[in-house]
Design brief:
single chain; seven-stranded antiparallel β-sheet; two-stranded antiparallel ribbon; 9 strands; elongated
Length: 172
């Protein structure tokens, strides 16, 4: 195989209380040799010059966070912060010329801290998107009494649904 690509990462702090970062990765990964046909597999899934399956050509991530003193509470600084993150994964090549859907996820967090006590409310997959964490293409048969199919079909492992989490902690 041959893999080439580039990565970019940038951090920003335009204000003392505001930070951000962005990263992008591009890769071109191709097979240099064909998979040999066999009696058991006369039509191999991988061909010369095709993109390597499961390797996404693009991955993007952007984060933004704001943190600011909101006042005082019983002589301690009340510190608040908000954050958001976006992650995108391009359409990944699959065997037999198929392509997996792209992934676009948004996460968010809100935090409060007073002295040693802190609380956070986090939400992953904020928009509640249905997405496939993994997609595969292969011949399968879930009926042990039937004739197994040799026709490849798409199978997915579902990605995590929206999750809401609350954390309360004390630093000792």
């Amino acid at each position: 195989s041959r893999r080439s690509g580039a990565s970019l990462f940038a951090e920003l702090a335009p204000l003392e209380w505001l930070r951000g970062s962005i990263s992008a990765t591009y890769v071109r990964a191709v097979l240099l040799e064909a998979q040999a046909a066999t009696v058991e597999d006369p039509d191999p899934a991988f061909r010369r010059g095709e993109a390597i399956p499961f390797v996404p050509p693009w991955i993007l991530r952007a984060e933004l966070a704001a943190e600011h003193a909101l006042g005082t509470f019983r002589g301690h600084t009340l510190l608040g912060s908000l954050g958001a993150a976006y992650q995108g994964v391009g359409r990944r090549p699959l065997p037999f010329g198929e392509k997996a859907d792209g992934i676009h996820l948004l996460d968010a967090v809100a935090r409060l801290r007073v002295g040693a006590i802190h609380a956070a409310f986090e939400c992953t997959n904020l928009l509640g998107r249905r997405w496939a964490a993994e997609e595969l293409v292969y011949a399968s048969s879930f009926d042990p009494t039937g004739v197994p199919s040799r026709v490849p079909a798409r199978h997915i492992k579902a990605g995590a649904p929206r999750a809401l989490m609350f954390t309360l902690g004390i630093d000792l």
